[in-house]
């Protein structure tokens, strides 16, 4: 159940940060969607109230909309050492893909 809200809340927090760049926002968006998929697959939706899923999906949708509205104004990589930021985001994206693949297979 926590996965339903975790992705959306995290994405909202990231999208509202003052110091932000596109690669960080991309990773947060991927995780926001991945958490929804993980929540749907792992959650026991027979005992959880049905209204929780749309609320979590709505949080993610609002976060994605906020991220999209800020996208053009953001630098691609805003870090003193750009390769570290890129490596961090790449490893985060790989972890998100592996988590979704592990749960769906």
Brief description of this entry?
The chain is mainly α. The longest helix is centred in the C-terminal third of the chain and has 23 residues.
Q: Can you give keywords for this protein?
A:
105 residues, mainly alpha
Explain what this protein looks like in three dimensions:
- The model has no long low-confidence stretch (mean pLDDT 87).
- The protein has helices at residues 2-15, 22-42, 52-70, 82-104.
- The chain has 4 helices and no strands.
- It is 73% helix and 0% strand.
- The longest helix is centred in the C-terminal third of the chain and has 23 residues, at 82-104.
- Helix 2 (22-42) runs antiparallel to helix 3 and helix 2 (22-42) runs parallel beside helix 4 (82-104).
- By secondary structure, the protein is mainly alpha-helical.
User: Based on helices, strands and strand pairing, what is the structural class?
Assistant: mainly alpha
Distance between the termini: 20 Å
Rg over CA atoms: 15 Å
| Shape verdict | flat
Residue-averaged pLDDT, rounded? 87
Helix count, DSSP H or I runs of 4 or more residues: 4
In N-to-C order, the SSE pattern is HHHH
The amount of beta strand, in percent, is under 5%
Number of DSSP-assigned strands: 0
- Unreliable sequence segments: none
């Amino acid at each position: 159940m926590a996965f339903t809200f975790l992705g959306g809340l995290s994405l909202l927090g990231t999208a509202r940060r003052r110091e932000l760049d596109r690669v960080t926002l991309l990773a947060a968006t991927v995780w926001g969607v991945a958490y929804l998929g993980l929540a749907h697959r792992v959650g026991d939706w027979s005992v959880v109230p049905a209204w929780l899923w749309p609320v979590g999906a709505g949080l993610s949708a609002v976060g994605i909309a906020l991220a999209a509205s800020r996208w053009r104004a953001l630098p691609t990589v805003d870090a003193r050492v750009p390769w570290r930021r890129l490596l961090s985001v790449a490893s985060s994206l790989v972890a998100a893909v592996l988590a979704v693949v592990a749960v769906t297979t």
